[in-house]
Amino acid sequence: MSEQERLVIVANRTPAVKSAGGLASGLLDALKAKPSLWFGWSGELRDDDANCVQLFSLGRLIVASIPLTTEAHNRYYNGFANGVLWPAFHHRLDLMSFSEDDYAGYQEVNQHMAAQLRPLLKPDDLVWVHDYHLLLFAQMCRAQGISQRLGFFLHIPFPVPSVAQAIPRIDELLDAMCDYDLLGFQTEDDRQAFVNTCRARRPGKPVPLTGVYPIGVDPHALQREAQVKPLVRLWPEDSHLQGILSVDRLDYTKGLPERFKAYALLLEAHPELHGEVQLVQIAPTSRTDVPAYIELRHELTALTGEILGAYGKLDWQPLVYVEHQYDRAVLMPLYRQARVGLVTPLRDGMNLVAKEFVAAQNPADPGVLVLSRFAGAASQLDGALLVNPHDPGEMAEAMRQALLMPLEERRARYARMWDVLCESDIEGWRTRYLTDLRAVQVANVEVEPGLASQPRTV
Ligand code: ADQ
């Protein structure tokens, strides 16, 4: 590692001044301690001057963010990234909606971001780009003469070749992805899917370096947060009511309708659980201007009404469904109160909620994780009850088993998962990826005529 090395994170969004959750919270602490830069969209839509770069500091981290025009954001973010890549990468080709114009918008924003980043770069920077919004970014950087090492991490799954081949412009996307020096994936299945798609679509051409880096959490910090006196007490220790907790972004990949139907089946098949169990689903809305998300919300509110109508009593609410967004200070102690963590996405890159639930548990009296086998986390958390989220009977049975599981078995399962969280934590994820990226030979850059070949420094 050189003296001057600076880590540059590029992601669709930059962290806010007060930031929590996901990628941001996982990386921020480490970045604040060393010279680093985070570049991305500010979240602001501006139709006047979309070229200005706003800068602020968080410790030794400089956050550089740019606004986007409403039109660019619509085509790049809603249109191609979330209208094509998100559904297709999660195997939902039926929800994919492609337009040439959206793809052009995606190209333009990737190119615009590369151009805006270029003057901010220093020669020894190590650039780490995140997620499906920026598949073309390395290619745009190379075309502009940016020669620093460029790494990429895909937070969501990569589709198997038969699905990937149905994505319009897949060959252009693969070519551009192959301009990265190192491509990181959440699971070996995702890595294999990418390599196999490259081999099928680009015969004879080299596949870049790839690796598997399952994202983690900071289990000790989360455990401490979970022990704080709860702001909301849903299932007091002296109550007979057992809590099942689900926390997701409201997204069709998270399997919420399937989960509600499985819960209804549990209540139908086991009247002895009436009055004894309660499912709390916390699901703040996201991407509210994409039609599939609007429909999903309607479906869920209808299912909620059906379950409450069929099973609810004046003194027992079998289901609580809230769209309000709670921060970690509320969620972590809530995870600890739940007897069951129900995490059943139809497909998910990793799913950090599953790991956060485990981290929050009381080792002496831990709850049980019921986890979809199609979440990346299932490849690591073998102490969970793994389920097929498409099979309501199997899910209902797993919920019942989790509610009745003896303490000794709960402790043994928890201990196995706690060890995995510690062995594969967020700090290990970051350092392992960056060590591998650092070891990559600097790429041979072909510069487009007319563009300077050396990155400028600020
Ligand atoms: P997401 O699809 O957003 O992330 P997930 O990993 O479950 O999914 O959650 C990311 C973060 O958001 C977690 O810290 C979680 O606590 C928080 N979060 C989720 N739902 C929340 C809620 N209702 N209220 C408050 N916070 C909530 C993408 C991929 C995942 C991958 C992550 C990280 O889709 O598969 O695990 O990136 O790589």
What is the helical fraction, as a range of percent?
Answer: 40-55%
The side-by-side strand order for the widest beta sheet comes to: 3-4-2-1-5-6-7-8
Q: What is the radius of gyration?
A: 23 Å
What's the number of structural domains? 2
Largest sheet: 8 strands, mixed
Distance between the termini: 21 Å
Number of strands: 14
Order of helices and strands: EHEEEHHEHEHHEHEHEHEHEHEHEEHHH
Spell out the CATH superfamily of the largest domain: Glycogen Phosphorylase B
At the third CATH level, what is the topology name of the largest domain? Answer: Rossmann fold
CATH class annotation of the largest domain: Alpha Beta
Strand content: 15-25%
**Molecular shape:** globular
- How many helices in DSSP terms? 15
Query: Which structural class fits the helix and strand makeup?
Result: alpha/beta
Going by CATH, the architecture of the largest domain would be 3-Layer(aba) Sandwich
Integer average pLDDT: 92
Bound molecules: adenosine-5'-diphosphate-glucose
Q: Which parts are unreliable, with pLDDT below 50 for 5 consecutive residues or more? A: 443-458
